[in-house]
Amino acid sequence: MISKIKADYLIIGAGAMGMAFADEILTHTDATIVMVDKNFKPGGHWNYAYPFVRLHQTSMCYGVNSTELGGDRVDEIGFNKGCYELASGGECLAYFDNVMRRRFLTSGRVTYLPMCEYREDGTAVNLVSGTEYEFQVRKIVNGTYMNVTVPATRPPTYSSSGGSVVVPVNELPNVAPKYENIVIVGSGKTGMDACLFLLSNGCNPDNITWIMPSDAWMFDRFTVEPDRRFSGPCTQYAIGALTTALEASDYDNFFDLLESKELVKRMDSSVKPTRWRCATFTPVELEQLRRIKNVVRKGYLESVSPTEMICSAGTHKTPPNAVFVDCSADGLPQMPLTKVFDGNTITLQNVRMCQQVYSAGFIGNVEANVAADEDRKNELTQPVPMPYRDEDYLRCFIGNSRNMLVWLTEPAVVKWINASRIDLFSPLLDFDDPETAKNIEAMNALMEQAVPKMEALLASKKA
Ligand SMILES: Cc1cc2nc3c(=O)[nH]c(=O)nc-3n(C[C@H](O)[C@H](O)[C@H](O)COP(=O)(O)OP(=O)(O)OC[C@H]3O[C@@H](n4cnc5c(N)ncnc54)[C@H](O)[C@@H]3O)c2cc1C
User: Fold this and answer.
1) Mutation probe of ligand 1 site: the residue of 11, 17, 100, 128 with most atoms within 8 A of C-beta
2) For residue 146, which atom of ligand 1 is closest to its CA?
3) In what order do the strands lie in the sheet with 208-211?
4) CATH number of the domain encompassing residue 21
């Protein structure tokens, strides 16, 4: 059976980005939307997240602009004590479900097609009933481009033999009580979360072996807490990074200075990080992670057996009665940057570093409220790369700064930034207040000076 659907926008993906974009269209226009997702519920990757997952950034600026998530509570207990609350995976899923049911569907302007896969020929199919859909729409919004991958949705990239047990991180609470030793495979945020889960449940750190293919620079959560004042931590962080670039003599010196100012932190003072993935921790969490001494830095894991683990740069003895916990999926792989606005297609990408949801909402606002041609819309939404290697820290700050300088020239964007709950990292841009206007001018001058210097620092990185 073929069903034909007419709407203004077809949004592929009801993950956080598709939802944040749709929310802006509903708020600022009368347009109709059809949302297609192969999942059974909105919320994208949160449907497959590990049971102890929490947001990596604060709840108060996550989700869609119109609907609060969790308020602005500060944690009074636990490893995140003193910082804004981080919603659990369950809370994120319930949130997106509520937004879909209570706001999107009741608006009468959204048609939601769960369990439907969008196909390259522009049609979609319901994976249960086989019903096919054809669309007559003005614009197609790709909310799948970021290609988020979590361990539960793909097999490990290494092989296992001799009866070794390898489980996705989702299984950790089930397997942890049954094995003497736990091997955590992967040093990204998921691997760190898995280690913290074990430590917070009293696991002896000596029973944890941590396969760490690479070390990454990290943020101290206290230094990037949301705050809309110029004097707030996040704006001061940005000023600190830009100023440090101006002071640095070369690439290596830049990271030395960042570290001496505690703008970045590392796990082990004797190992130089080669990655930066926006991972954010409290000092207490970092202290906990440093309790793990069995850290295997021998490259990427290639195969495991009950006796040994073969890595790309050497082998390591498997501890007795061990389970391997796969935390190695690259959650946010690097995708080639592409035009956001291209004819009748809008491709959702980051326009601010590490801020997917903010970026999708921002693009929705540009689509709805900026009356300009495609070139201007693209000028306002230059994609910022996904963080991966250490040099991406500079690339992201260059992208952020260039975008901010353009955003300040567009009144509809300034208005959105000031009113936006999903932007808690920009200072309020009140040009009528002399003190704020002075701060904005100073920040502009700093960004204009720092961007070419950051480019020079990038060029000075030794191969
Ligand atoms: C553990 C974890 C914690 C995170 N914490 C934060 C945080 O605190 N703050 C933050 O800003 N970001 C965070 N992120 C980043 C995260 O990428 C975003 O928050 C966001 O959830 C990504 O949403 P998305 O819509 O881009 O992708 P997804 O969640 O992957 O959604 C894409 C959707 O598209 C659907 N889809 C794909 N292909 C098709 C197709 N062909 N047909 C139909 N549907 C399709 C999928 O089913 C999916 O539902 C975190 C990421 C992870 C993995």
Assistant:
1) 17
2) 26
3) 165-168, 322-326, 181-185, 208-211, 295-296
4) 3.50.50.60
Residue of 123, 148, 424, 425 to mutate, ligand 1, most atoms within 8 A of C-beta: 148
Q: Residue holding tokens 């606005």?
A: 341
Contact 192, 390 (CB under 8 A): no
Sheet of strand 301-304: strand arrangement = 159-160, 301-304, 308-311, 314-317
How many domains, in total, are found in the chain?
2
Q: How far is ligand 1, taken at its centre, from the CA of residue 13, in Å? A: 9
| Local structure of residue 177 (DSSP, 8 states) | G
User: pTM (2 decimals)?
Assistant: 0.96
Residues 169 and 67 in one domain: no
Q: In ligand 1, which atom is closest to the CA atom of 49?
A: 1
Q: What is the distance between the terminal CA atoms of the chain, rounded to a whole angstrom?
A: 57
Inside any domain, residue 380: no
Helix (H) or strand (E) holding 9: strand 2-12
- Each residue's pLDDT, cut to its tens digit, for the chain (463 residues) gives 789 999 999 999 999 999 999 999 999 999 999 999 999 999 999 999 999 999 999 999 999 999 999 878 999 999 999 999 999 999 999 999 999 999 999 999 999 999 999 999 999 999 999 999 999 999 999 999 988 877 777 789 999 999 999 999 999 999 999 999 999 999 999 999 999 999 999 999 999 999 999 999 999 999 999 999 999 999 999 999 999 999 999 999 999 999 999 999 999 999 999 999 999 999 999 999 999 999 999 999 999 999 999 999 999 999 999 999 999 877 677 789 999 999 999 999 999 999 999 999 999 999 999 999 999 999 999 999 999 999 999 999 999 999 999 999 999 999 999 999 999 889 999 999 999 999 999 999 999 999 999 999 999 998 7
- Evaluate whether residue 33 is within a structural domain: yes
* Residues framing ligand 1 (Cβ under 6 A): 12-18, 36-39, 44-45, 49, 53, 55-57, 62, 117-118, 143-144, 146, 148, 150, 331-332, 355-357
Residue 265 within a domain: no
